[in-house]
Structure formats: structure tokens, C-alpha cells
Amino acid sequence: MIKRGIQTTSCQCKNIRSGIPKTTPFKNKPLSYEEAQPPYRIGVTKAWNSWNTSNLKDEGKTGETTIDDMFIRRFVKGTFHYLLASEVIIKRRHNMIIICGLLFGSYQQRMSHDPKKYYFLIGYSEELLSHFLKCPVKMEFSVVTDKNDMVFKKI
Amino acid sequence: MATSMKSIRKVILWNLSKKSRHFSTSQSHCNRHETEQLKRETPKLSGSTSEIVIPNRIPRGPTSILKALASTVERDPNAPAYYLVDDPYLYPTGFIPKKNYALSKAAGKRAAKHIVEQHPEFFQNDTSHPKVEAFMPPKTEYQTTGANEEALKERIEMRRVKDAIALYTEIKLEEMEVSEETLLDLLDLLCVYNNKDPPEELYGEETIYLSKHNRKAAKTWEDFTAAEKLFEDLPRKSARAYNTIVTGMAKGLASENAMSKYNEMLENRIPVDLETFHHLIEYGTMTADSHKEKWSLVTAMLHELKNQGLQPTLETFRCVLSALGSMASHQNSTHYVMKTLAEMKKLGIEPSLSCFANVLDVFYNKPNDRSDMLKKVVDYIWEKKVPINGSDDLHFFFLAMMKNSRTLKDVEIATKLEVLARKHDVISGPVQYVSVFYSLYFKLLCMYDTIEHVMEVYNQIVPHIWMLNTEEYEELFKAVELYEGYQYIPQIWSDMQFDLMKLNDIVNLVISSMAKVKHEEQLQNQFCDIAESLISRWISDQQFISTMRRPSRYLSLMLTATGMGDLITISCNGNRFNQAWLIFSTMKDNPNSFEGVPSGPAFTSLVELCIQNNKPEQAIDVVVYMCEHGLPDGKTSIEKIQTQMSLTDGQKEYLGRLVN
Predict the structure, then answer these.
(1) What's the whole-model pTM score?
(2) B460, B483, B506 — which closes off a domain?
């Protein structure tokens, strides 16, 4: 323990690019626009995934809001399984929670889904999350019919 | 770059100057206004008896500002309905998908509700302030059990009618004492819900597509039910008990029972509530033997109402008019309606839209009634701004539009009705009324208005508010042909591409109106493109059906022989020989695929096109086809070919044989 505790060589600073995906040898890893933006571009060329006022002065419930957002993200990822094409964006306006995102129109480009299924899932999630979070929840999704439309660049 | 910057600066400067000008004018206007006001007020101030008159306080509710703001906006006709997703992939393209998607969403909500009911323990965490009861899991289990008054009270509170009746019989068997207050509450519950459990509440999407016309016609009150037994059991029959049972019976259309109980009340000098009178007037008189007797009952009740010292309200008059509406065929009914309206005016009560609906029922009872009441009513609503409460008033608009299109056929009235309905968002109500409302309106417009105005309305309501059906398309194309609005056809065509279910019904209509006359080059080119897309789609459909296993509900494009002839005419008008030839050869190769008999003129024009393009072989093929099908003008076409074309000897001989 003690032997390992002392560091005598200088730091190499190899892993300083947190949040930036590594390139692959053949440059064939597709990235969407959001993924392609490094974290320091948030607020410049990319927006936040959660929109709320909990970090403003005299506004409480930072922790609760964050945990709720985590719950919502997991719920949406599980309910719209294999369908989410982007991150889940959560906006809180007044007493409302608005959940946005992009969905795939088909699963692995084989058969396109019937829009009825999406409507069912949207109605189900809205109602269940409303009951869970005790406030009106609205979902606003757009559908990406071709997976390749999401590719911004390949690294 | 430099020039563009310059121009931007110019625009900004121009805008600024315009703004400042606007600002200065408004300021000067303000000043002038103030000075005028001052001038007017100065003499008052100079006088010794100056008094400051404080205006009366206008009572404002918590939502007054929101209402004022809401009155400044109206529905955007280009926006999809709120319950649908505004996305090209998820947005429905026809009426049936629209209904399916809305109901799927409602089904999803139902599934979620089921989970909430099954696992209430997961939904107890409540951070809301103030508490929102609607988002709490519903209470399904009773707190108190066993036959006692507390348990009965709980069941009444939770509106469980069946359970309450069962518990009450249990309590009676054990001969327990129950307070009068609870018994009366139970009677209220039984009478309000007509001895049945309350129906399940529908979601918004479901009310639009599933709600049915519930005009009461049959008696729903059952004799000797729990409510009646409970009423007999009551130790002391108070006024409240009497009023409740009479109201319940009248609402359940048990008019005779209600009237006998009402007479009992009069004999025992029990005061009757205003609400009881309302229900008695509206429903209690339904089973009267004749209209005359019915009206005498209504008037007798109104006299009694006066005797009891009650003041009639809007609801009272609405009920009177509703009773009159159900006796519309009576000869004096219009007279009685006018008397009622005069009475309302005397009391300063503004009629509501449901009053007017009954008025219209009376005035336009027979199909040949042509009174100008409808015009007066619509003008009144237009000017007086009678409160319109959204989809509750849909029935009035529906009725008014129906009466108008059946009797008066007045476009102005119809337009006013539509504008009012759209402005007050009446059209987001049950879809069966809305679609009939718009269908009547649109058909009326097609018949009596110019095509320009029809298309203006069309652009506003299609596709988000309403979609055309086959009937309306027929009327629309008639109007297009009448006013020669052929330039609108490409737009209408592209709009209807989405609704494949209807396409087969309308496609032949479109083709025939496109083939009516020859148009200027650009439009004719568009028509030819449509024809080309149709024929290529038909061919690919046939290939799809023959080569692959056909999906069970695949709708292939259906064309008739006349339609094919029209397609040939369109191509000939556009001078597209190859396209016309493709259509002709398709028709020749698949003789059994097209219903009906092809028309002659299409083929004569095709022959002429062949002559123009110097294609003797094709021309002869067409002539042969004409002769085989016994079409007129076959001989003249042959003569034309013989005289106007240079033919080989074999061809000449062949034509000669054909003539003979």
C-alpha cells in the first residue's frame, strides 16, 4: 500500500479529453451531431440535455430534479427500446415536463413500424410519468426514417 | 459581400426611421387624446360641486387575464391537432389512420392507468403542492368494512352505486339505525346515477372519436328500483327526498311516475325546487298524449313556479324551448316560441346557443319551411357575441348548418357559421358532428360559390381540420369544371395522394375532368405528368401483384376503360406520343383488366397524333383496335390514314381489307 501510494515520476496527462470519443483505426465509427461536439462546446454549438431552473439562486430541489431526470431517461430508454436515436432532452416549463428526442422509424432498417405503436407508447409514457411525477408530462418526438441521416461524421 | 452588407444596413435604417415615425405619430395622438380629455374635464373641475366618480369595480376571476389573452388568438389552420404528433412520419394521412392513432394513444393511457391501479404503492411519493388528486392512484379498496353507517358513507363518497345498494340491503336485514342525512345522500346517489355505476370516463381522444349521439328517447328508469324502495322506506319524506326522486325519475324519462310524485308534492304542499321544475318541464312532459296537453302541462308548471315564488332563469327557458322543440309539428309552436323569447327579453335574459338550437328545430321542422329565423339568429350571435362554450355548442352549429343546407341554402349564413365555429374552437368536438358540418358546408359552397372562394376555404380546412370524402370530391370537380378552375387540379391531386383508401373512387373523376379540354402548355404538361405517374403506378402494381405474394390488404390502383381513354386524350393534348402509346399498348395487352367500354374520341386523337409523328404501324394498330371494339369513327380514321400518310403496299392492302 505504502509503496504504491507515492508517485515520483511526472504525470503524463494522457487522458485529458473526457467526453470526447476516441478515433478508430479505420475511421468508421459514426457519430451524431450531438456526440461529435466536445463537452466544451456545450452552450456554443450544442445545448443542454436537461433544461430547468434548479441551479438558479433561491431555487431548490437540484438533487430531486437530477434524480427525476435520471429516472425519466431510464424509463424512456426502456419503454422506447431500440428506438431512441438521440439523447432524451427534458425541459421543465412551469409545472410541465416536456420530453423530447428522436426516434428511429424502423428497427435495423428491415420493417418500418406502424405509427400506431408509437402513439400507444407515447400515450402510455405520458400517463404513467404524469402519475409518477405528479405533473403533466408531454412527449414531443420526431422520427428519423433512415439511420444514416443521424451520422454527422465518422471517426 | 460589401453590397449585401450595405443593403442590410439600408433596410435596418429604413425600418428604424419607420419605427420612429410610427412612435412619434402615436405619441402625438396620445397627447392630443389627453388634451381633449382634459378640456372636457376642466369645466367639471372648475365647478364647486366637483365629484370624483369612481367607476364600478369589474369583478375579475383568477383566469380573467388568461381568458382575455385567449380571446386574441384562434386556431391555426395549418397546425395539426394537439393530440397528434407533428412529424411527417407520425402524422396521419387520412381519416381512418387519424382515428386509429388517436385511439392508440388513448389505449396507451388506459394501459398506464391499469398499471397505476394495480400497483398503487409505487405512486405514493407526492411532491406536488398543492396536492393534485388526479395524479394520485385511485382508491380501490374500502377503508371500512362490515354493515354500518360509516361504510355506507364511504361508498357514497366514492360513488360506488352497486356496492352502496348491496350494503344498504345488508344494513336493513340487520335492522340497524341509519341517520336520515345518510339515507338522503344515498337517495341522491341512486337518482343521479339512475341506480347504476357511473360510466367510465373517456379520454379526450376517445370523446372525439367514440362519443355517440345521446339524445334521450327511451325510458331508462326502471320501476321498483332501489331508489324507489329507499324512498318508500324513508321514515319522514322530506322536501329534499321528494325533489330528488322526481328529478331522478324525470331524467330517466319515467314521466308518468315523475308527474304522479309531483302531484303528490302539490297535494301535500311540499315546496318544489327550481331544478326539479327544469327537469319536469324538459323530460316530464314527454309522454303527454297530445301536443296541446303537453303545452298545457308546461304552462301549468310555469304558473306553479310563479306561485311558489321562484324566479325563472336561463335554464328554465331553455327547458321550455326544449319541450317546444319536441312538439315542433304543432301548429302553434312557432307562436309559443316567439312568446317565450319575448318573455326572456322582458326579463333581460340572453338566450344561449342551446335555446337557439330548439328554436331552429321548431322553425325548420318541415323541409319546405323558409322562414328567415336562421338568418336572424346567426346575425344575432354574430353581433351580440353570445358566449360560445367550445364543443358543448357543437350541436347548435351542426343543426344550424343542416337546416341551412336543407332549406335556405344561403352561403352567407353558412360562412358565418363556419367562421364562428372555427373561432371558438367548436370544431375540436366529436368528429361525427364536425365531419357532417364541414361536408354540408363544403357541398353548399361548391354548388353556389365561385371556385376561387371554394379553394380559399379548402386551403384553410384541408387536411388538419377536415378531409374530403368521395361525395365532396364529386361536388368539387363539378365546380372546377363549371368555373373552369382547372389550374387547381394539380394541387387537389397532390393533396389526395395521401389518402389511398379513397384514391380509387376519385381517380376516374380527376382523369375525366383533366381530359375535358386542351389547356395551355404548362398546365397540360402538369396533367400529362399526372397521367404518366398513374399509368406507371398501375403497371408497377400489376407487376407487384403477379410476382410477389400479395399482402392481404394491399390496395392496387383500379382504372376503368373510360379512364384509360381519358388518359390517352390527356397525353394527346400534351403531344406526348410515347406516353399515349404506352397507355394504349397497356390497354391492348390487358383487355380484361379494365371495366367498361373505351370511348371513341380518345382513339381518333391518338390516330391523329400517330399521323403527326409519322408512325404508320402504330396508327394501323389503333385502327384495328377500334374496329375490333366496334368504336365509331373507325372508318373515317382509316380514310385519314390512307390519305395523309405514306404507306407501304402491304399496309395499304391491309387497310383496304379492314374497310371491307
Answers:
(1) 0.79
(2) B483
